[in-house]
Specification:
Order of helices and strands: HHEEHHHHHHEEHHEHEEEHHEHEEEHE
Shape: globular
Largest sheet: 4 strands, antiparallel
Number of domains: 3
CATH architecture of the largest domain: Orthogonal Bundle
Number of helices: 15
CATH topology of the largest domain: Triger factor/SurA peptide-binding fold
Number of strands: 13
Structural class: alpha+beta
Strand content: 15-25%
Distance between the termini: 12 Å
CATH class of the largest domain: Mainly Alpha
Radius of gyration: 26 Å
CATH superfamily of the largest domain: Porin chaperone SurA, peptide-binding domain
Length: 454
């Protein structure tokens, strides 16, 4: 890969070689036809559509003009990714199924939040969550294997303060990036809850359906008629085979207590209320069907959530509890509670968020706040449509400026570390290119992919 000094190119190298970025993590499944193999790396292939998809995606994100040199860089990175996978097979580097499943569930949760809920995600792709997971599983597994290989190659690489200063000094003065005002933000979220009466109504509806099943009516027929799970209702409620820990705990625990053909009592989960019927066990997997009834949410009230947040805010303001600990203990937002409530930039994954990328609803809350302040509870609607309230913590706010070592030391240190890791991985590539079979379509010979061996 050609050496560069500016942050934009380095960011590209970092995404290709070091970590899977937030954007890459959120890539949605894409239908691709076998449109021509342009590269073979042992048992792995790169299709022309793979190259075009990654090329167009990078152009859209970076707002660069189309150019063949960039396309060649992307082809090189794709070849190197496949080389990592090929070497992982030779070196017996694997990722445990449970870790793949956990990462896959996180990806689905992220996509669900992006489109506004499970139902919208399934409707958008016209596929059930299970089908989407099946399609994404191999991609997630390969990404995790590549990350593990990268960690083995460059995980111990570090940079000294002297190397950081030397890296920064190599950047031409007219190429220094201009950073707009950035903020570090935290939030603690509480969802508005449906009333006990609404829950009781849903439970009673399912109890009545259960009596009909026990009296002899067909579970699948009633699922088609009553279930509010759009991904399974038309299939008679059948979910297909799942392994342990792939479904929510309440559902799984009830399902595994059943014998084939047996119907559970009413089970409550985060999705609503379920009746579950075990269809079959096969080794470590089990297949069930269910009827889902969701409590009506038209009349939820955020007052209780607001009152709870007000009490939490008082504890933090009075130094009885840190904001991070309060977020971990009380926040309903699982995407931020384990990071001390801190929000991250969707573009970079960094906790330093440019002001022009801040959610407008949050922007107007923090606009008049001082650094260190915590807002009063603010009602809002989550991306998946839930009514909720939150308190916002303004941890820091920078002024617009040209990059400099004093204000941006950590960013520069990260960029310098990424460059050094990139060099370590490039060295590894040069040493390992001849350990696997590589063939590049003559149409792309001008990209000189194999010159990395020199």
């Amino acid at each position: 890969m050609r050496k560069t000094n500016n942050f934009a190119r380095l960011a590209f190298v970092a995404v290709c070689f070091i970590v899977t970025s937030v954007t890459a993590f959120a890539q949605t499944p894409v239908q691709r036809k076998v449109d021509g193999i342009i590269a073979k790396i042992d048992n792995h292939v790169i299709l022309k559509s793979d190259l075009e998809f990654n090329y167009l995606q990078y152009l859209a994100q970076s707002k660069q003009q189309p150019n063949e040199e960039l396309k060649c860089e992307i082809l090189r990175s794709l070849v190197q990714d496949k080389l990592l996978l090929a070497r992982a097979e030779i070196d017996s580097v694997v990722v445990e199924d449970a870790m793949v499943t956990d990462q896959l569930n996180r990806r689905i949760d992220y996509l669900t939040a992006q489109v506004g809920g499970v139902e919208r995600l399934e409707q958008y792709y016209n596929k059930s969550i299970r089908q989407l997971k099946d399609e994404l599983r191999k991609t997630v597994q390969e990404q995790m294997i590549m990350e593990r290989m990268q960690q083995q190659i460059a995980g111990k690489v570090s940079v000294t303060p002297k190397e950081i200063k030397r890296y920064f000094s190599r950047i031409p003065q007219d190429s220094l990036p201009y950073f707009s005002s950035e903020v570090e933000l935290g939030q603690i979220v509480k969802y508005a809850q449906v009333s006990k009466q609404q829950k009781q109504t849903a439970r009673e509806q399912l109890e009545a359906i259960r009596k009909r099943i026990l009296a002899g009516e067909d579970f699948a027929t009633l699922a088609k008629q009553y279930s509010q799970d759009p991904g399974s209702a038309q299939a008679g409620g059948e979910l297909g085979f799942f392994k342990k820990k792939e479904l929510v705990p309440e559902y799984e625990a009830a399902a595994l207590r059943l014998e084939p053909g047996q119907t559970s009592n009413v089970v409550e989960s985060q999705f609503g209320f379920h009746l579950i019927q075990l269809i079959e066990r096969k080794g470590q997997e089990f297949n069930t069907r269910h009827i889902l009834i969701k409590p009506a949410t038209a009349t939820v009230d955020v007052e209780e959530a607001t009152a709870e947040l007000d009490s939490i805010r008082t504890l933090v303001v009075n130094d009885s509890l840190t904001f991070a600990k309060a977020a971990k203990e009380f926040s309903d937002d699982k995407n931020t509670k384990d990071t001390g409530g801190m929000l991250t930039s969707r573009a970079t994954g960094s906790m330093y968020i440019p002001m022009d990328q801040v959610d407008p609803a949050i922007f107007f809350v923090i606009d008049t706040m001082q650094v260190g302040e915590i807002s009063k509870p603010v009602p809002f609607r989550t991306e998946d449509g839930q009514e909720a309230a939150r308190i916002i913590y303004l941890k820091s706010k920078s002024k617009p400026h040209l990059a400099n070592l004093q204000d941006d030391y950590q960013k520069i240190a990260t960029a310098a570390l990424n460059e050094k890791k990139g060099k370590a991985i490039e060295t590894w590539f040069r040493k390992n290119f001849d350990t696997v079979y590589i063939e590049i379509d003559p149409e792309y010979q001008d990209c000189k992919v194999l010159q990395l061996t020199q």
